[in-house]
Amino acid sequence: MHLEEGTLSPLYKEYQARKILWLFSGGVLLCGVIVLSISVGAVRIPPLDVLFTLLGRGDTKRWAIIIWNVRLPQTLAAVVAGAGLSVAGAVMQSILRNPLGSPFTLGISNAAAFGAALSVMVLGAGRMLSSQSDAVSILSPFAATGAAFFSSLVATGVILLLSRTRGATPESMALSGVALASLFTAGTMLLQYFADDTQLAAMVFWTFGDVARAGWRELTIITAFVFISLLYFFAHRWDYNAIDAGEETAMGLGVKVQQVRLFGMVFASLISSVIVAFVGVIGFVGLVCPHIVRRVIGDDYRFLIPGSALLGPLLLLGADTVARLVLAPRVLPVSVLTSFLGAPLFIWLITRRERS
């Protein structure tokens, strides 16, 4: 059966319109979750008051300190970190042709954590404070980020070398990521063994991924690096589509596969290192979100990248909101909930590939 002339274009436009509608709905939902996240906590703020305060209308002085100094930086940090980790995972899964790829599962986040811990002990980049909401303070943010970035680049180099090895399968690369994560975790433990009490407390607290420790300064730095990286990823969306069709096909279309792979991994490592340096290790967001988005709108990176950039914040912000409520007035680190969510999906992905 052949399509009549002129029917393909309307069908394709309808197909694209559904994806755009999904992205628009995700953006509206994210705005609602942001308002809800700001409203809940030890002090409950009515959502309308949150909205009026953010818009500068009504009685803005009543909740201004809580919203602008505490809740809003934490909420935006979850949005930016979730978007960065989710898109980084989506890109890594394409350029490595590995559905299990993400900064956390391939050991890059653990390598960045080792670099951040090294900067605390050797460079004096971090210290412990007395308050729970700001328990870790970074004295030299660029030193901590630089050390985390260098360590993550080492892990990235190993992953890239393995991806070019003959016979390298997604499963073997995932197992290599587990080995790298174990190696860098052992290095972090070695640093903790020789650290003094203050350094040890800072390193241990750093392993608890928590967006609550991000203030406006930390948020500004994270946003700058994540925004630049996301722009790079979106600019190369067609390259990732071509690589998904096969390396030979991509090279036939003029895509410089090795260059795209190298720079993609570097920017993914940059996102991971900056986020780890300021909010700690947050696992499985980069693994879970791209697969969910693929189920809904497919593998087209023109829509997968913005879709991941919306679902990542929704997942991380939702987990952070639940973490503030589940044991109130105690606040759980958000990485606890993301791990509880991501671990079962990780196991399901591995078992599904073994059966196929």
Note the topology.
Blueprint: H1 8-39, H2 47-55, H3 64-95, H4 108-122, E1 126-128, E2 136-138, H5 141-163, H6 170-194, H7 197-207, H8 216-235, H9 237-244, H10 247-252, H11 257-279, H12 285-297, H13 301-325, H14 334-355
Antiparallel strand pairs: 1-2
Helix pairs in contact: 1-2, 1-3, 1-13, 3-8, 3-11, 3-12, 3-13, 4-5, 4-6, 4-7, 4-11, 5-6, 5-11, 6-7, 8-11, 12-13, 13-14
Structure commentary:
It contains 14 helices and two strands. With 356 residues, it is mainly α. It has a single domain (8-331), classed as ABC transporter involved in vitamin B12 uptake, BtuC, CATH 1.10.3470.10. Helix 1 (8-39) crosses helix 2, helix 12 (285-297) packs across helix 13 and helix 13 (301-325) crosses helix 14. The longest helix has 32 residues, at 8-39. Residues 1-6 have low confidence and may be disordered.
Query: Briefly, what CATH class?
Result: Mainly Alpha
Radius of gyration: 21 Å
- Can you write the helix and strand succession as a string? HHHHEEHHHHHHHHHH
The tally of helices reads 14
The strand line-up of the biggest sheet is 1-2
The counted number of beta strands is 2
CATH architecture: Orthogonal Bundle
Kindly state the percentage of residues in helix: over 70%
Which topology does CATH recognise?
ABC transporter involved in vitamin B12 uptake, BtuC
- Stretches where pLDDT is under 50 for at least 5 consecutive residues are 1-6
Distance between the termini: 32 Å
Main sheet, how many strands, which sense, barrel? 2 strands, antiparallel
Identify the overall geometry: globular
Strand percent estimate: under 5%
Structural class: mainly alpha
